[in-house]
Every structure is written in structure tokens, then in C-alpha cells.
UniProtKB/TrEMBL annotation:
GO molecular function, one term: transcription cis-regulatory region binding
DNA-binding residues: 124-218
Record-annotated Response regulatory domain positions: 2-116
Keywords for this protein: DNA-binding, Phosphoprotein, Transcription, Transcription regulation, Two-component regulatory system
UniProt organism field: Plantimonas leprariae
Protein name: Response regulator transcription factor
Pfam families cross-referenced by the UniProt entry: Response_reg, Trans_reg_C
Domain OmpR/PhoB-type: 124-218
Amino acid sequence: MRILIVEDDPNLNRQLCEAVADAGYVVDRAFDGEEGHFLGDTEPYDAVVLDVGLPKMDGISVLERWRRDGRKMPVLILTARDRWSDKVSGIDAGADDYVTKPFHIEEVMARVRALIRRAAGHASSEINCGPLRLDTRASKATVNGTPLKLTSHEYRLLAYLMHHRGKIVSRTQLIEHLYDQDFDRDSNTIEVFVGRLRRKIGLDLIETVRGLGYRMNDADAGV
């Protein structure tokens, strides 16, 4: 999963990016509205945390442009506590949720997780594929209750496939959502990570769809 943080305060930007990275997500950052708009308009994100009071272009304008151009990623806006009008404007502009400043980072992360789950059609913080379980709150996966020892890249790949279980996900889509904009992207690494995941999971859940990509089978997941 790939998240964009658009916040002009350096310390808050850093704290948010660290929290997002610690939760197992890939994170890109921007410090003003113009840069944030450009990234959101040209890169695929699973969620965006967008401050309303930004230099160069305010957050509401950024969001309005994204929605006008058909960008549908979930957006969480950050507003000042005494600016209720920002909340109304943000929701009307297409925001999916909001948090008022000052806030606890944990609340932002909980709301981001919820936005990502809902966008993929999941209501619970736990996603199951038969005996394979993903706990999005703890950023951990288990098989029959036994924890899987995964690298950060393996966890990101597994999380993306499980969020989109039953759907074919292309290699290009995986690369775009598992690596930040500065990463040297190589589609061959996806095959390596898929192979490692299959061995660690020990179950025939990840299907290779020839010429199209991969699919996390959900036949035994009760859906």
C-alpha cells in the first residue's frame, strides 16, 4: 500500500511519514499544494493525508482538482480545530474523512487504515483467506494462528493482494503500489517476492494468471 502525505509543517510531515512507514506502508511526501497535486495527479496512491492550510495551493483546491480530474483515491484532510468551515468545504470537495489539529498520530493511522479497507470493500481490520489472516492494525500475518516472518516488501505485497483478494492484480499495479517514486522499479523482483511468500505461507493461495498478473484466491475465505 502506498500513501501520500501532504503537510507543510516539517516536524508533523516527518512524524506522519514515520508512522506510515512503521505501519508497513510505502510513503511519499510533499510540503506544498502544487507538489502534492502533481504527485496525486501522476502517481497511484491507496490513500492521501492532505493538510488544508498549504502554501502555493490550498488543500481544498488540490482536492477539487483531483476529483475533477477523476482521481478517486481516499483522502483524509487535516484541519484546524476552530475552522469548522474547512471540514464542510473538504467533505463537499470530495474528502472521505477528516481529523482536526492537534491530533494523535494513532488516530490518523486508524482512519487511514479504515479508508484503505473500505476502498477495497472490507469492513473489518482483519482480512482472511482461509487459514491466512492479515491483521491490518498490527501489520502482521498468521497462518492457522502461527505468525509469518515477513520482510517489509513481502508484507506489503501480501497486504495488497489480500486487500484485493479474488481480483487479478498486474505486475505493473503491484510495482506502482509497493514502491515509492524514487525506487528503482524492476518487475522481476515481484516474482521473487511472490515465490518467497508462497514458501512462507505454505498454501496454494496466490495464483499466477498467465499474461495478466496474480490473484489471491478467496475460495476458502467464506466470501
